[in-house]
Design a protein that fits this description.
The complex is a heterotrimer. Chain A is mainly alpha-helical. Chain A is 79% helix and 0% strand. By secondary structure, chain B is of the alpha/beta class. The termini of chain B are far apart. Chain C has 16 helices and 2 strands. The chains are: A mainly alpha, B alpha/beta, C mainly alpha.
């Protein structure tokens, strides 16, 4: 019984790590662009599906796919930004909000609908999971530990990236003080594009891991984005550790809920967590929102 | 209590930064008080605390003997303290008239009856010289007009204390004179005015008393010419030779 | 000037209502249903706009009120409550829910609020699907059968007209002014005495009433409700798109938007039946890029709107004209 419980908790940590990772992508996007990307969860979904396709076609190790996917989605993300978000980036906050919600929501809907259409071709439907268990046939937990390890490595590398490289520092600078960053010559527009690409790529990469554990359907996008938002609220804007911790808290909560109450209730968890935070500690949120 | 407004040991910390330290101020009814000091001295923070936008970290604020330190901004406004903003913040898409109406309808404990509201709002606008702009959206106004709108909106709440935050910045000489006249007229209505300003000539002319802040600390207070000659004040403004800050005390 | 044109518009509206009122006689139930749905969507769009347009908080979860109203009415009808009482209780329940929910949610701003409210719909869908003994689960609930088409039709027209009037009155009221001020600059509004929290909460409650009513009328007519119908994407987004397309914060906006959306829907339905949802998405994107203020705010149409007297400005200027005479 205890080992089952532990299994659930570990599953939760793993899930949470993946969430936290993707949520971090959202967090830096919001910090730099001041736009909350409602389609963020859809990029995780796309990452999963693309990763799956690559796996099916070439049989490459999923962890390598996760790395390959990053540059691919950076490009996609930058394209998305230049096409859809840059035109509105200059608007005053009121209009920016409405416009960005419309655009990212619309994009999310389009992505989800088109994906449902194209992936409905195998008549069996759109649920599937990546049988990486077959690669590492032995014990399930080995795969999971491995994923945790890889996530950890990725997290550390991202943290280093943020601390050491120009891009990373620019991201932090813009998040903390936009005006000041402009004054010292940081090219906001270019960094914004790259940040968006990076944020989206992180989500996609997380998606590859996600699909090794869970089933993916085209409509998980919005609920996922809601979860990421909860995590950003929990962990604070722009902080990787915050996102990861927040993610893990959420992941464990979700796992336990699924275990005790049945899987059908787990989408509700992120919401209940969010509402609880909002009731208990509203200042923590308001303070970060600028 | 004798004082209309009193700050007692007001201190404000933002994380590690001490914005205001142990500020003690007393304001009598009918005065025009100037608050001056170099940028970053904590002047606007002080206004924010008095007006209720921020709570003090330590210390208290008293209005007519009643403590208002922890009260929300909307309540303080209704009690009789109104403010303008250093960078103008009108309700942009709303008309000038509507801007005033908000102050009128919500900023007073006893707002006038429905039918009278528009008339009174128009009176205030006309007094401020904005009568012809009543139906224009606030965002279409010039900067000067917006500054008057800020004042008008604050006056609409029929305050006992008006906090003016650098309302004269950006005004040319003629406009400055006109604004000064307006402030005098406001004071003649019985409103106590506390103004943050950098234009020292105005301070000298208008204010009964001046309070000087530097790095969050009150370094001087008194009549304008006393303060102008206070060596600490001079040093605060002119600074050290190495830093190269320059600001003239003469008009 | 604006007097006369306003009178004209008013007369046109009365005329339309008369036509609509007479419609059941010659028209088939297909047409009636079409108008019925239109009225429901319009009610939703207008009530959405109270929070989304006047207050400036994009409540993407507005259809939660619709779904709650529908489900409560269905459950009550199945327990032999009369229609009037069922609708009334359903509205009370919906409004109470809105009041409770406003506490945590209004601590969020901007995009966070939009996303959180949107997520609320999914949450409701989960509840509806899982609380089987109450809500009938994914199979939904059927209410006592009967042909209520004609009375429901009239009810829907009443609801829609009532919401138009509500929106119009709100725009002219002191409360409406408070909402607008919060939209423009919440912090400043607060510093001028506007009780922001209670205004926000009240606006959400007010907006939930027409939506809940619409849900109740809907389920009475269609005699069936299920999670996707109550909390699905279509019912969630169409009203929002209508309001945003036409112009938020303006009473006429959702009306204009509704007209356009139906036109587009009818045109496209003939051509492509599949990508309905995608088209919505693309529409949203285009709206966001080029016309985030809606049709009524597009520059070259502005003078026309002003002359009609339906600009978002409150009507005080008309009173002022009277004063100046």
């Amino acid at each position: 019984m205890a080992s089952q419980f532990l299994q659930v908790v570990v599953g939760g940590i793993l899930l949470g790590g993946i969430y936290g990772f993707a949520a971090f992508g959202l967090s830096i996007t919001f910090g730099v662009l001041n736009i909350l990307n409602l389609a963020h969860g859809d990029f995780l979904m796309l990452g999963s599906l693309v990763g799956y396709s690559i796996f099916l076609s070439f049989g490459i190790n999923p962890f390598i796919i996760a790395i390959i996917i990053i540059p691919l989605f950076v490009v996609i993300g930058v394209g998305f930004y230049l096409l859809l978000l840059k035109p509105i980036s200059g608007k005053p906050p009121n209009q920016l909000l409405v416009a960005s919600v419309l655009i990212t929501l619309g994009a999310s809907i389009v992505i989800e609908d088109l994906t449902s259409f194209f992936w409905a071709h195998p008549i069996t439907g759109i649920d599937y999971s990546l049988p990486s268990l077959e690669l590492y046939g032995l014990v399930i937990s080995e795969t999971r530990l491995f994923i945790l390890l890889v996530l950890l490595i990725l997290a550390v590398s991202i943290q280093l990236y943020l601390q050491k490289t120009y891009m990373g520092k620019s991201i932090r600078a813009i998040t903390q003080c936009r005006g000041g960053a402009k004054l010292i010559g940081i090219p906001i527009s270019r960094i914004s594009a790259l940040t968006f690409g990076l944020g989206v790529a992180i989500a996609a990469s997380a998606g590859v891991f996600y699909i090794t554990l869970f089933t993916v359907t085209p409509v998980i996008g919005i609920p996922l984005t809601v979860k990421y938002m909860c995590i950003v609220v929990l962990g604070g804007l722009g902080s990787l550790t915050g996102s990861v911790i927040g993610g893990i808290v959420l992941g464990i909560a979700e796992s336990l809920t699924a275990y005790w109450f049945g899987a059908a209730w787990s989408p509700a968890v992120s919401f209940i967590v969010l509402i609880s935070i909002l009731i208990i500690k509203p200042e923590g949120l308001l303070g970060r929102q600028r | 209590m004798a004082y209309l407004l009193e700050c007692e040991g007001v201190t404000k910390n933002f994380g590690g930064l001490v914005a205001l330290k142990d500020i003690n101020i007393q304001v009598m009814k009918g005065e025009i008080i100037g608050i001056i000091g170099p940028n970053g001295a904590g002047k606007t923070t002080l206004f924010n605390i008095i007006a209720g936008a921020l709570p003090p970290s330590y210390g208290k604020v008293f209005f007519k003997g009643q403590e208002i330190s922890e009260k929300p901004a909307s309540e303080i406004c209704r009690l009789g303290i109104a403010r303008t903003y250093q960078i103008v913040r009108p309700f942009n898409s709303l008309t000038t008239l509507e801007n005033i109406l908000i102050g009128l309808s919500f900023g007073r404990i006893n707002p006038p009856a429905y039918k009278k509201r528009v008339m009174e709002a128009m009176n205030i606008l006309t007094f401020m010289g904005l009568g012809t702009k009543a139906n224009n959206a606030a965002e279409t106004l010039t900067l000067v007009e917006k500054k008057y709108l800020e004042m008008a909106r604050a006056m609409a709440t029929s305050p006992e204390i008006l906090l003016l935050d650098e309302v004269l910045s950006g005004l040319g000489p003629a406009e400055t004179v006109r604004a000064m006249d307006t402030i005098r007229e406001i004071q003649a209505f019985g409103v106590t005015v506390i103004m943050i300003e950098h234009v020292l000539s105005v301070i000298m002319e208008l204010c009964h008393r001046v309070i000087v802040l530097n790095y969050g600390v009150k370094i001087a207070q008194g009549k304008p010419n006393e303060v102008a000659n206070n060596p600490r004040v001079v040093e605060a403004y002119i600074g050290n030779v190495e830093m190269g800050e320059q600001e003239t005390l003469n008009a | 000037m604006s007097w006369i044109q306003r009178k004209n518009l008013f007369l046109i509206a009365i005329l339309c209502l008369c036509v609509l009122a007479a419609l059941p006689l010659p028209a088939s139930s297909y047409v009636l249903m079409w108008v019925f749905l239109m009225a429901v969507y319009l009610t939703l769009a207008l009530s959405y706009d109270i929070v989304g347009g006047f207050l400036g908080y994009m409540n993407l979860g507005h259809s939660t009120s619709f779904g709650l109203g529908a489900y409560s009415t269905a459950i009550l009808l199945n327990h032999d409550f009369g229609l009037a009482l069922a609708l009334f209780l359903a509205i009370v329940f919906t409004a109470a829910f809105a009041a409770i929910v406003s506490y945590p949610f209004f601590r969020l701003r901007g995009a966070y609020f939009a996303l959180a409210t949107f997520g609320l719909i999914s949450l409701m869908e989960v509840f509806a699907t899982n609380l089987q003994h109450v809500t009938g689960g994914s199979g939904g609930i059927s209410t006592p059968p009967g042909d209520h088409m004609v009375p429901a039709y009239y009810l829907s027209l009443v609801a829609a007209s009532g919401t138009v009037i509500l929106s119009h009155l709100l725009g002219r009221s002191r409360f409406g002014l408070a909402l607008l001020s919060i939209r423009e600059d919440e912090e400043v509004a607060r510093s001028f005495g506007v009780p922001t929290f209670s205004c926000k909460s009240l606006s959400l409650v007010i907006s939930s009433v027409p939506a809940g009513l619409a849900g109740g009328i809907y389920v009475w007519n269609v005699t069936y409700i299920s999670p996707p119908a109550a909390f699905g994407l279509e019912i969630a987004l169409s009203p929002v798109v209508m309001a945003m397309l036409g112009g938020t914060g303006i009473t006429l906006g959702p009306l204009v938007g509704a007209v356009f959306i139906t036109l587009i829907q009818e045109l496209l339905w003939i051509k492509v039946a599949y990508f309905h949802v995608t088209i919505y998405g693309v529409l949203l994107v285009l709206l966001g890029l080029f016309m985030p203020g809606g049709i009524l705010r597009t520059r070259w149409l502005w003078p026309v709107v002003q002359r009609l007297g339906f600009g978002e400005k409150i009507d005080y200027f008309k009173k002022q004209e009277i004063l100046q005479r």
